[in-house]
Amino acid sequence: MAAPSLYDKKIVCMILLDIILASKALETA
Asked: Per-residue confidence of the chain (29 residues) as pLDDT tens digits?
């Protein structure tokens, strides 16, 4: 169960980046 920790962190970072980019897109729209 300890192996996919880095993989999960990458997914979380990607999701956070998507949310930030989406919020910026909404602000500029």
From this structure: 566 688 889 999 999 999 999 999 988 86
